[in-house]
Please model this.
Amino acid sequence: MRVETIAAASAPRTTEKLRIDLLFLDLTTCTRCRGTDRSLGAALTQVADVLRAAGIDVELNKLHVATEAQAWEWRFVSSPTIRVNGTDIALELRESSCGSEACTDGCGDQIACRVWVHRGQEYTEPPVELIVDAILRHVYGGAGEPVEESPRPYELPENLRRFFAGKATAVGPAQPTEVVATECCTPAERQTCCDSSAKQECCGDATEQGCGCR
Model:
C-alpha cells in the first residue's frame, strides 16, 4: 500500500509583543541603575533565541523618571524598576542607600534605592537569572496578557517625594531662604518645629547635614 503524506499549508504567523520597561532616576552615575541596565541587556541576549522561536518581538523602553509628575504618571515606586508587560518583576520591595551622589535629596541626604531579592538572597543589582525567569514566565504564561484594568491606588513614596522636591529646589529659580530650608523637613515637621515668623532662626539654611529641625 502506498501512503501519501499531504502537508497542510502553514497559517500566517502572528508576532506578539513583549513590552519591557526600565525605569530609573539616574543612568549616568548610579551604580544600581547602571548595573540593572547591564543585567537587563545580558538577560535579553540570553533569551533572544527563545523569543525569536516563539514569534515574540521585544519593545524595550528606558524611562528616565525626571519629575514628580512622571513618577505619578508611571506609578513609580523605587529606582531602578523593571516591568514586563506592565508588571514589576520584583516580588517584594526592599531598599537601601546606594551611596551615589545622584541619589540624594535637596538636603544632601541619601534616598533609598532598590534591593533585589532572588532565591532568598539580596542583591544591589538584579541577577540575570531573575530577569530571565520573569521574561520566560510571561512568554509561557501568555505574553500578550494586559495589565489589570483596576490597579491598586498609587501614592508617591515619601522617599521619592523628598528626592523630587530637593531636585526641583536645586535646579529651579532662587527661592527665599525660608522656603529652601523647609524643604529639608516633612510637612508634619514643618508644622511643629517653630512658628513661621521664626523659621530662619529655627531651621537654618539647608546644608549637606540637613537643617536645624533635624
Q: What stands out?
A: The helical segments are 31-53, 68-73, 128-142, 158-171, 177-182, 187-192, 199-203.
